[in-house]
């Protein structure tokens, strides 16, 4: 890697890890936070997406329908996951959310008939044991911590659906165009939820509007934009292993900025869970790194954005 790659990776990791902190600093309803974050992010990347709008002419009706379902899944993810942060700790919520690549693996096995090796099953078992320890630790606490863990699990299932459903369409659209469309649909889903549940769109304090803007600019556009930039320049293994660090960095930030303690049980369970997830992602990324063509030569993809679906991570 070039010298400047590590600082860019670090900036991207901190940017996405700050997402949970910005959400905790806002007292607006979860659906409002998610809606404004998505709509603001859409507005920010729209100029880049607009230049690539000609690609839309080549999308079939079936792919357009899958694009819509992908956006719905992303909207549900933000609804459940953001609410989970209101009811449990940052550490517990993000550790459970880290299971997403393994959920995607199961989805690929069920619906796409992908092969699953014994090592991947073992990685999933390790991660589930770790997540179970985290949930067990939360069950002993007063309040709604266990309910928050359940919401995080629902959010993980939703974002796994977003990754699986959108996998086909992502191969035909550039990241900026794909994200702009999906973010707009997901924001519309949350707007519809707010209207049907009579949650007001305004007024909110200036502090809340600042958190919405930081979520859109820093955590969404900057964080994931930096990773998209690096996908053309570093191995998928590097990106995958960096993103696994999000729960760790976010937990440390929550301890420093929010005063959320890290219990021994949560720390142990989180370490076990992330070990399983990291092992699975490392194996998946190595497959991509070592991909060879029929002639036996190592294949260099024209666009490194075309990475395996199992390397996609939750859009926090």
Automatic annotation (TrEMBL):
GO-annotated cellular components: membrane
Domain EamA: 11-135, 148-279
Transmembrane domains' residue ranges: 29-51, 63-82, 94-112, 119-140, 146-165, 177-197, 209-231
Origin: domain of life: Bacteria
InterPro entries, per database record: EamA_dom, EmrE-like
UniProt cross-references to Pfam families, sorted A to Z: EamA
Cellular localization per UniProt: Endomembrane system
Presence of the UniProt keyword Nucleus in the record: no
Keywords per UniProt: Membrane, Transmembrane, Transmembrane helix
PANTHER family referenced in this protein's UniProt entry, alphabetically: ACYL-MALONYL CONDENSING ENZYME-RELATED (PTHR22911), EAMA DOMAIN-CONTAINING PROTEIN (PTHR22911:SF76)
Protein name per UniProt: Permease of the drug/metabolite transporter (DMT) superfamily
Higher taxonomy: Bacteria, Bacillati, Bacillota, Bacilli, Bacillales
